[in-house]
Amino acid sequence: FLEDLLQVKLPRMIYTKPQILKPSRSDVLTMTPWFAPIVWEGTYNSEILNEQFRRRNVTVGLTVFAIKKYVVFLKKFLETAEMYFMVGHRVNYYIFTDRPEEVPKVALKEGRNVVVLQVQNYPRWQEISMRRMELISNFSQQRFINEVSYLVCVDVDMRFNDQVGVEILSNLFGTLHPGFYAAERQSFTYERRPASQAYVPSDEGDFYYAGGFFGGTVMEVYMLTKKCHEAMMVDKANGIEAIWHDESHLNKYFVYYKPTKILSPEYLWDDNMGRPEILKKRRFLALPKNHAAIRNK
Ligand code: 2GW
Ligand code: MN
Could you report the per-residue pLDDT of 224-242, keeping only the tens digit for each? Predict the structure, then answer.
């Protein structure tokens, strides 16, 4: 994608200037020690960002898996994505499912497409979740690389509730897990058994990232998902499965391949965590799910 190689020229724009002596947020960390921005409401100007990404004519791929009963989540997911996800930009929804006939028809705005990708089902739910890494990596190489600049990979048991736009895009990004953004390192639920490929020693790691929202350029997502899938295959051969499955492997990956941008928990919130003062927007919300009824069919 040649449009990504050069800075684009912007038109005349009117906005209040950034103020060096007045940081936009003083209540939260907005930059990691490796200079990756942490995206919070109030820290960015979406007018500038939208101009930049529109002028590059960027297309964003959103991957989502709806295997077995999880197809029930698709309708609300897609309807709310049409309201809030990458509004004004080109979007391809890539829906991986074993039930293509049950994918709901949702009215799409211009420049937005649904692509249904039929995949097999796996008997164990842990396997369904984990195999996402394998499928995303295979499809990145075969298809996504020709169709989109960035991939955003999310859980389906969610709804969009506020804007999720191009401010999230970067070479490689992860999202702070809503349960651990304020936690100490030793309470992160990394895989702690050295026998697993997802092992993270107790004195390493920056943040605990959510398995349900990551992305980046197609090349970076290809690398991430390939490495995570390979690590899960080594674990399987050794008769071990990481404590939080794909999420554990994602967290291991991000210890050593640092994300270039980090999304605050605004981007993956769960109302079971309450409504802390620092949280100005709840952009993407976990849906309450009846675990017994929806799972293990
Ligand atoms: C079925 C039974 C139990 C658990 C999951 C499933 C299931 C998951 C399914 O029948 N069909 C299906 O399509 N999935 C996909 O896997 C779907 O996209 C779903 O959002 C994703 C992860 O499963 P989920 O959302 O039920 O698990 P969470 O919300 O507890 O996920 C966190 O932990 C997972 C690993 O245990 C992943 O890392 C996930 O990304 C995390 O958000
Ligand atoms: Mn989920």
Answer: 999 999 999 999 999 999 9
User: Domain range spanning residue 166?
Assistant: 43-182+210-239+262-289
Q: What is the CA radius of gyration of the chain?
A: 19
Residues 17-27 have a mean pLDDT of 98
Which residues are found with C-beta within 5 Å of the ion, ligand 2? 155, 157
HEC secondary structure over 192-253: CCCCCCCECCCCCCCCCEEEEEEEEEHHHHHHHHHHHHHHHHHHHHCCCCCCCHHHHHHHHH
Active site residue 51: no
C-alpha of residue 140 to centroid of ligand 2, in Å = 22
The helix (H) or strand (E) run that includes residue 146 is helix 145-147
Ligand 2 centre to CA of 286 (Å) is 7
User: Does residue 192 lie within any of the structural domains?
Assistant: no
Position 202 in a domain? no
Q: What is the rounded distance in angstroms from the CA atom of residue 258 to the CA atom of residue 182?
A: 19
Q: Which residues pair with 31 in a beta bridge?
A: 37
Instruction: Give me the interface pTM, i.e. the ipTM.
Output: 0.98
Contacts of 246 (CB under 8 A, 6+ apart): 129, 130, 132, 133, 211, 228, 232
297 confidence band (pLDDT: 50, 70, 90): very low
Residue 37 in any domain: the answer is no
Residue 164 has pLDDT above 70, yes or no: yes
Total number of domains constituting the chain: 1
CATH number at residue 149: 3.90.550.10
Q: Are 260 and 173 in contact (CB under 8 A)?
A: yes
Atom of ligand 1 nearest to the CA of 286: 29
Residues 6+ apart with CB under 8 A from 40: 25, 28, 30, 264, 266, 278, 280
Tell me the C-alpha distance between 133 and 225, whole Å. Answer: 5
> Binning pLDDT at 50, 70 and 90, where does residue 6 land?
confident
9 found inside a domain: no
